[in-house]
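Q: Given only this backbone (138 positions), what sequence would you predict?
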């Protein structure tokens, strides 16, 4: 699966976005290590804060389908610069994806930036922080 095909899958997913409030469609495509592509779109709600972004939709779909090892993600929106994932999605990527996993950020004009999960959220709070032994502390 090349980068262009993953971007195309994200573009298709974007068409399915449920965005009656923002009208801002976003698509994501997550490549698993066994070559499957899982698509996600943003799904909004009348209670605005319940909105699920495209990136988290793809990740949660994958986990609930039993897919847990990921190789890359592409994200697309109609933005001037390549789309920038929100903080919540960056935190969920840190939880579920390898730190060096490529994240391909694009827009409809075809601008592309490639980054990584760890570059998107340096210094993230993660499972290692929870693993610290606190039993002897008062
Ligand atoms: O990377 C992003 C940025 C925004 N959104 C969604 C959330 C909301 O539905 C709309 C406007 O913020 O775009 C995503 O899905 N992914
Ligand atoms: Zn988000």
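A: Predicted residues:
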């Amino acid at each position: 699966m090349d980068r262009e095909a993953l971007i195309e899958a994200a573009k298709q997913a974007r068409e399915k976005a449920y965005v009656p409030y923002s009208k801002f469609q976003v698509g994501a495509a997550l490549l698993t290590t066994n070559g499957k592509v899982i698509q996600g779109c943003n799904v909004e709600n009348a209670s605005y804060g319940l909105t699920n972004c495209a990136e988290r939709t793809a990740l949660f779909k994958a986990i609930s389908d039993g897919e847990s090892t990921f190789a890359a993600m592409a994200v697309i929106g109609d933005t001037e610069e390549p789309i920038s994932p929100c903080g919540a999605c960056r935190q969920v990527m840190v939880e579920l994806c390898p730190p060096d996993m490529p994240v391909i950020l694009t827009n409809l004009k075809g601008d592309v930036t490639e980054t990584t999960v760890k570059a998107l959220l340096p210094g993230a709070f993660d499972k290692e922080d929870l693993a610290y032994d606190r039993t002897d502390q008062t």
